[in-house]
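Protein modeling request. Please complete all fields; requests missing the sequence field cannot be processed.
Requester role: graduate student
Desired output: 3D structure, token encoding
Chains: 1
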Amino acid sequence: MAKDSNLKGKYTESKDKKKDAAMLKKAGLDKEDKAKFEKMDKAHGNKKKPKTMKEDEKIDKGIIKKIKKQHAKHEKSESKKEERREDAKERRKK
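Delivered output (94 residues):
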């Protein structure tokens, strides 16, 4: 198994862009989510720039995980709303 050359060494913008693109593709995020990722990644970079690519990857994985968690939470709340609507409909029929 070959190691990813983008993870080796010092952090650079070009390596970061390549690695981010690969991670987003693998995560399967849509355009809206990619925009969220870019915004969160940029905000974190302005706050504290990573020293190594390994450190940057760890940060990026956390951001992707956070975005996916937001999706799951939204889907769960939508299904609960739908369930409540159906229950209310049933009560009205009685």
